[in-house]
Amino acid sequence: MTDIPYGRQLTDLADNDPDGTALIFIARDGAQTSLSWCQLEQAANTWGRALRSKGVAFGDHIALCLPNSVELVNTVLAAWKIGAIPIPMRWDLPDWEQQRLLEVIDPAFVLDGSTAGDLQRAAATHSDAPLPVVVSPAVNGICSSGSTGLPKIILNTSPGVWTPASSLPFMAHWTEVCQPQTILVPAPMYHTNGFIPLRFLLGGDRLVVLEKFDARLFLDAVERHRITTFTATPTMLSRLADQPDVDQRDLSSIEWILQGGAVMPPTLLHRWFDLLSPEQVVLSYGMTENLGLAALRGDEWLDHPGSVGQGFRDTEIQILDDAGDPVPTGEIGEIYLRAPMTGQYRYIGGAPPLTTTADGFTSAGDLGWLDSDGYLYVADRRTDMIVTGGANVFPAEVESALIDHPGIADVVVIGLTDPRWGRRVHAVVQPSDHAHPPTADGVIEYVRGRLAAYKVPKSVEVVDEIPRTAATKVSRSAMVQARGG
Q: Same domain, yes or no, for 346 and 463?
């Protein structure tokens, strides 16, 4: 049998290796909790019955409003056991924004700081025997505000069944990967990069989950638990590389890593090539809507610097102009993807579906180009593009040039209303040393020799800290609004 319901798959894992370590949770203070496969299976069954006692039925939505935690993992597994749909969400949103999201999710149960203890107590009163096998009609939802700021839930409409392909590592495309893996999870589980490892857990991989990303705890976990792989954003990788003792840390257990979430600055990528090797770094491009994937390994990147890869796992890529016609090789247009998984999403909240061509290619609004070998290069999101003086500037390109400045720890580039330029390129920078921040003139002069004149920031703002989420994302639209539009 190759299509195994999630609940049955967890039961089988517990039967095959009851005392084997399945999950290690590391709290912010470094305290650790370890659970075996048997303990996870028992918790999923008792928590599943507790959810039913709270009125949760097959196909219902469960809102998960907690940081990474054992309780969060237990509830996700319990939801799959009873055929419900887990939807993690940010726990630190203002009340008004949280309520707006909950109205869209319309959950049968909300797991948060006020209900988790009660659910745990209820679970303790129920049997831990395996629940009847059912299949969730959708794997999970991921909350997004997109580029409009309006809440929407991206529902992964794949049924809750495990197949061997579900747990196939990215790196297996290039070379054999030892399994089971020991996967470090630094991202919050409300983000795709944080949630997907739970599906690898169902393939028998061990998860080491951080409550919150912390570079020191991350490196400690790699050494202590002999981590073999992890997925991280460029911001996380930058903070790790900036640790003063990173070169002395034992990273020998790492077989490969996956970078996603944003375009990787070349200098940072070369730093990780030095820490590991080009053959151990995989870069990927995709989106929560499951439209398709592009990927490449570090040694390929060296031959195609700046690329995010070729079509991966049967993904086809087209670059189209505003009229829907293919553009010449090397010319920027809108990125369209077509893959076997295309269409396995649905929006909750009234957001319109993404633009899809008659032959099934779909775009999330990103701009980019293909080279003559079919490698994809991402310029930026169309909504983030700055039109200044009639020319198009992509913030990601400017940020990539600025992040190499020795006095800059983090940077976000936005477009602000300007009477002369329409919108001016504005750089918001976080200094490496707050006692000696870089000057605006120094930042502008630094980047002037790296970019065309029209791309150079017209203004620079130094802030104590860039307002990033736990997933290291930033809301450009909110930053623009905060500065008057």
A: no
* pLDDT per residue as tens digits for the range 76-128: 999 999 999 999 998 888 888 889 889 999 999 999 999 999 999 999 999 99
Cβ distance 404 to 451 under 8 Å? no
C-alpha to C-alpha distance for 464 and 409, rounded to whole angstroms = 10
Identify the CATH number of the domain in which residue 192 sits.
3.40.50.12780
In a domain, 356, yes or no: no
State how far the Cα of 233 lies from the Cα of 381, in Å rounded to an integer.
17
Check if the beta carbon of residue 207 is closer than 8 Å to that of residue 22: yes
- Of residues 387, 154, 376, the one with CA closest to residue 263: 376
Residue 107 has, within 13 A of its CA and on its CB side, a CA count of 24
**Would 315 be classed as within a structural domain?**
no
Q: Are residues 298 and 404 in the same domain?
A: no
Tell me which of 350, 376, 411 is where a domain ends.
350
Residues 344 and 417 in one domain: no
Residue 90 tokens, joined: 């940010």
For 5-52, the pLDDT digits (tens) are: 999 999 999 999 999 999 999 999 999 999 999 999 999 999 999 999
Q: Distance between CA 294 and CA 311 in Å, rounded?
A: 4
The DSSP secondary-structure symbol of 309 reads: B
SS3 431: strand
Q: Name the helix (H) or strand (E) containing 152.
A: strand 152-156
Query: Contact, 221 vs 230, CB < 8 A?
Result: no
Q: CA angle at residue 199 from 107 to 130, to 5 degrees?
A: 75
How far is 283 from 264, CA to CA, in rounded Å? 8
Boundaries of domain holding 239 = 4-309+340-350
Peptide bond into 406 cis (omega under 30): no
DSSP character for 180? S
**Which one-letter DSSP state was computed for residue 326?**
B
Note the pLDDT of residue 147.
Answer: 44
Q: Is residue 23 part of a domain?
A: yes
